[in-house]
Automatic annotation (TrEMBL):
<dbReference type="GO" id="GO:0006355">
    <property type="term" value="P:regulation of DNA-templated transcription"/>
</dbReference>
<keyword id="KW-0238">DNA-binding</keyword>
<dbReference type="Pfam" id="PF00196">
    <property type="entry name" value="GerE"/>
</dbReference>
<keyword id="KW-0805">Transcription regulation</keyword>
<dbReference type="GO" id="GO:0000160">
    <property type="term" value="P:phosphorelay signal transduction system"/>
</dbReference>
<feature type="domain" description="HTH luxR-type">
    <location>
        <begin position="146"/>
        <end position="211"/>
    </location>
</feature>
<keyword id="KW-0804">Transcription</keyword>
<keyword id="KW-0597">Phosphoprotein</keyword>
<dbReference type="InterPro" id="IPR001789">
    <property type="entry name" value="Sig_transdc_resp-reg_receiver"/>
</dbReference>
<feature type="modified residue" description="4-aspartylphosphate">
    <location>
        <position position="57"/>
    </location>
</feature>
<dbReference type="InterPro" id="IPR016032">
    <property type="entry name" value="Sig_transdc_resp-reg_C-effctor"/>
</dbReference>
<dbReference type="InterPro" id="IPR058245">
    <property type="entry name" value="NreC/VraR/RcsB-like_REC"/>
</dbReference>
<feature type="domain" description="Response regulatory">
    <location>
        <begin position="6"/>
        <end position="122"/>
    </location>
</feature>
<dbReference type="InterPro" id="IPR039420">
    <property type="entry name" value="WalR-like"/>
</dbReference>
<dbReference type="GO" id="GO:0003677">
    <property type="term" value="F:DNA binding"/>
</dbReference>
<protein>
    <submittedName>
        <fullName>Response regulator transcription factor</fullName>
    </submittedName>
</protein>
<dbReference type="Pfam" id="PF00072">
    <property type="entry name" value="Response_reg"/>
</dbReference>
């Protein structure tokens, strides 16, 4: 018997959420187990419901689905995240890759495509082509090459920024450096403030732009 795919929905438009929920709940192998309309609501409700897949709108009134994705992956790495966006562009793909998303789905696709995407990522398949994601990140990184702001960072902050660029979560960075996750979170907040940035995705892209060609 096929295990039910548990889905959490994050979208600030109630009509959109209702439409997607009705679409998903009509399927025998998919169940909507939770919903939220803001980033602030999302993580707590995701933790309470523990879905298989979180479908996250990229644009929210109090933040971004990309940041929510990163928080979910840091706290619950077993949950697969799909970014729901109205724009098919390089920045969206790059941000989704760096946040650890399993893929992204355009809002204007047919309902059958959303169902297919949810089933694929629930089965462990990534919907982001590795070669495409590498080209996108390299292109974005090239735009930030030779940025002088990184000189303001201390040694530990530079280490943490490099690990962020490698796609590690705060918890994973803590294990790597032998520090508490809360300590890493404080370091990340500090380095973002020094760089004049709001999101760790932006910091990761900035760091990637400083790496020599071929650097892993």
């Amino acid at each position: 018997m096929t295990e039910t795919i548990r889905v959490f929905l994050l979208d600030d438009h109630e009509i959109v959420r209702r439409g997607i929920a009705d679409l998903l709940n009509a399927e025998t192998d998919i169940e909507v187990v939770g919903e939220a309309s803001t980033a602030a609501q999302a993580l707590g409700r995701v933790t309470a419901t523990m879905p298989t897949v979180a479908l996250l709108d990229v644009r929210l009134p109090d933040g971004s689905g990309i940041d929510v994705c990163r928080d979910i992956r840091s706290t619950h790495p077993e949950i697969r995240c799909l970014i729901l966006t109205g724009y098919d562009d390089d920045e969206a793909i790059g941000a989704a890759v760096l946040a650890g998303a399993a893929g992204y789905v355009l809002k204007d696709v047919r309902g059958s495509r959303i169902l297919e995407a949810i089933r694929m990522v629930a089965a462990g398949t990534s919907l982001i082509d590795p070669a495409l994601s590498r080209r996108v990140v390299e292109k974005i990184a090239a735009d930030t090459a030779d940025d002088p702001r990184l000189g303001s960072l201390g040694l530990r902050e530079s280490q943490i920024l490099s690990l962020i660029a490698d796609g590690l979560t705060n918890r994973q960075i803590g294990v790597e450096l032998g520090l508490a996750e809360k300590t890493i979170k404080n370091y990340v907040s500090g380095l973002l403030a020094k760089l004049g940035l709001q999101r760790r995705t932006q910091a990761a892209i900035l760091r990637l732009g400083q790496r020599p060609t071929g650097d892993a």
